[in-house]
């Protein structure tokens, strides 16, 4: 499909990455010469003059013909993907590769619907760091055929997010802290841990490589809670 190819390749011609460029050899879908009055139909100078304008207008017509591709994260040009990200607010820090940004933009709305849930938090962390975390929370649910049974969970609200990855030292813990802070239930204080994925390596059982950064202690309860 020519239109989809153009959505991917009609990229930028400036270093700032904010302008749509021309495509050599792209024919206009609506040549101006065919729309001139009959008196100019055989006029070579007039036809050559407006053909120069066709070169400028052809990318515009082509963009409009495949406009839906620009709003499809998997097809949109790179700078347009970043613009779409401003619309939907995915958890990005700007260092992610293009394909990761495409996936983040495509899934942002669905993740917003899950914000504040265990599944939403797990998906958000996995999207940002490539691994699904273990989530331990203080809440609980239980049923009993007898009244006055023990309450489930822990009386003090808390949340622990434990991320297990092959190379813990490469994880930006400040970034992890920020991602969890944005996606957690708003009323829960939390801590984060990063562990190696092979705890039984040659050096013996491994310990957590780090917890919440020293300058970022567990988030306190908001005022009024």
TrEMBL record:
Record's compositionally biased regions (Pro residues): 214-225
Superkingdom per UniProt: Bacteria
Residue stretches of biased makeup (Low complexity): 1-22
Keywords, sorted A to Z: Plasmid
Protein name (Swiss-Prot/TrEMBL): Putative secreted protein
Region feature Disordered, mapped onto this chain: 1-25, 193-225
InterPro entries (alphabetical): Tail_protein_I, Unchr_phage_tail-like
Taxonomic source organism: Streptomyces clavuligerus
